[in-house]
């Protein structure tokens, strides 16, 4: 399959790169990372320039481009700074569920404000470490005349403290799993922030629902469709995480190569030592292999023919290569790499957080084996 970008895709990639290079100030990135603050002003500017929701239809505030173009933006942003880029990539988490399954009214209500940088969205699916384990879902939505009454707890929620709405998976007593739009401002919604090692610019935490009332019109799709929504979301989220991975790995490689060209030891540049040259060569190979896998998967996603087995292969291999590349970059920096003032230090922390989003090796191997051999 040919992966030469179209002229339009190259323009999107170039514009995203130039925006990030102009706006992602290294000192600001360090300050935001250490303080655990979201890059509010950069988000607003990115939205004004059309970088948020570029894949939404024009009638809902987007530019009508593909999900592939959205991933090119995420990759370019994370290449310049993994923390800011990742934070911007998560402001509309779950919007793909709205795009595919939401009503026209729900799309009008949510998507334009997301694209304008006026609202943020979060996903409240997980209640255990494995967010895909529907048997662990205990959050209940009880139908009461014209409303649902929601009670339960959600864990590991990105944008927990900042999202205006949450796409929430619930169990309905008779109909199985349903997905609801839950507004953060509703009485009975409680947020419990959690500190994490990486991706510190993105809020994270648990949600507690105590008899939260939402109108029936806030149900996405049909009753009993929750599992379908979960599967669709994790494909879209997996590709976004993969794009974050690619940009982060490329950014770490860029910094390691620049450092190797400048740093001298024993009267020679680091880049003149064979061991460093070989490290950089291996890192370059890893980045290009990851890029090929992600671009192929993104193309399949836009054509609505993504294969579950190949998708798991992509997530598994991309995760491996991300961790390897960033670890090697840190080693090239040596002791300086562990100093907070060096961007590579937060690239290393962010890489492990993104890796968690891509799933464990064991989980992806199980999924790959199942497509090859059938259920065990």
Task: Give a written overview of the molecule.
- With 376 residues, the chain is α+β, with helices and mostly antiparallel strands.
- It has three domains: 7-115, Orthogonal Bundle (Butyryl-Coa Dehydrogenase, subunit A, domain 1), CATH 1.10.540.10; 121-225, Butyryl-CoA Dehydrogenase, subunit A, domain 2, CATH 2.40.110; 228-373, Butyryl-CoA Dehydrogenase, subunit A, domain 3 (Up-down Bundle).
- Helix content is 52%, strand content 16%.
- Strands 1-4-5-8 form a four-stranded mixed beta sheet.
- It starts with 6 loop residues before the first helix and ends with a helix.
Which labels suit this protein?
alpha+beta, Butyryl-CoA Dehydrogenase, subunit A, domain 2, Butyryl-Coa Dehydrogenase, subunit A, domain 1, Butyryl-CoA Dehydrogenase, subunit A, domain 3, 3 domains, 376 residues, globular
Query: Strand percentage, roughly?
Result: 15-25%
- Catalogue the unreliable spans: none
- CATH-defined superfamily of the largest domain: Butyryl-CoA Dehydrogenase, subunit A, domain 3
How many domains, in number, for the residues? 3
CATH architecture tag of the largest domain: Up-down Bundle
Order of helices and strands: HHHHHHHEEEEEEEEHEEHHHH
The helix tally amounts to 12
Give the overall form: globular
Write down the Rg.
21 Å
The largest sheet has its strands arranged as 1-4-5-8
Describe the main β-sheet briefly. 4 strands, mixed
Mean pLDDT: 91
What gap, in angstroms, lies between the N and C termini?
Answer: 32 Å
Class of secondary structure makeup = alpha+beta
Strand tally: 10
The CATH class of the largest domain: Mainly Alpha
CATH fold naming of the largest domain: Butyryl-CoA Dehydrogenase, subunit A, domain 3
Helix proportion range = 40-55%
């Amino acid at each position: 399959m040919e992966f030469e970008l179209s002229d339009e895709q190259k323009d999107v990639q170039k514009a995203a790169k130039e925006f990030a290079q102009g706006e992602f100030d290294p000192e600001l990135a360090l300050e935001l990372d250490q303080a655990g603050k979201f890059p509010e002003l950069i988000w607003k500017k990115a939205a004004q320039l059309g970088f948020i929701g570029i894949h939404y239809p024009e009638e809902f505030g987007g530019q009508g481009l593909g999900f592939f173009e959205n991933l090119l933006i995420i990759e370019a942003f994370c290449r310049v700074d993994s923390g800011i880029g990742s934070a911007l990539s998560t402001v509309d988490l779950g919007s793909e569920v709205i795009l595919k399954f939401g009503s026209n009214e729900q799309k009008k209500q949510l998507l334009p404000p997301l694209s304008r940088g006026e609202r943020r969205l979060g996903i409240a699916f997980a209640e255990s470490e494995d967010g895909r384990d529907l048997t662990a879902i205990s959050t209940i939505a009880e139908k009461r005349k014209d409303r649902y009454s929601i009670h339960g707890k959600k864990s590991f929620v990105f944008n927990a403290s900042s999202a205006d709405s949450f796409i929430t998976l619930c169990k309905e007593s008779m109909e199985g799993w349903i997905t609801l739009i839950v507004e953060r401002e509703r009485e009975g919604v409680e947020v419990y922030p959690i500190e994490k090692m990486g991706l510190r610019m993105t809020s994270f935490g648990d949600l507690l629902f105590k008899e939260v009332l939402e109108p029936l019109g806030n149900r996405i799709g049909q009753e009993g469709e929750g599992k379908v929504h979960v599967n669709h979301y994790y494909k879209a989220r997996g590709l976004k995480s993969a794009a974050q991975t690619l940009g982060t790995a490329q950014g770490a490689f860029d910094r390691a190569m620049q450092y190797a060209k400048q740093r001298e030891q024993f009267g020679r540049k680091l880049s003149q030592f064979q061991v460093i040259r070989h490290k950089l060569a291996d890192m370059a190979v890893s980045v290009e292999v990851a890029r090929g896998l992600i671009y192929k998967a993104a193309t399949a996603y836009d054509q609505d023919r993504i294969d579950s087995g190949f998708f798991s292969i992509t997530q598994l291999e991309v995760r491996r290569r991300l961790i390897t590349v960033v670890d090697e970059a840190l080693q090239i920096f040596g002791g300086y790499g562990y100093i907070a003032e060096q961007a590579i230090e937060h690239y290393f922390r962010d890489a492990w957080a993104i890796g968690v989003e891509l799933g464990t090796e064991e989980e992806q191997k199980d999924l790959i084996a199942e497509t090859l051999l059938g259920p065990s």
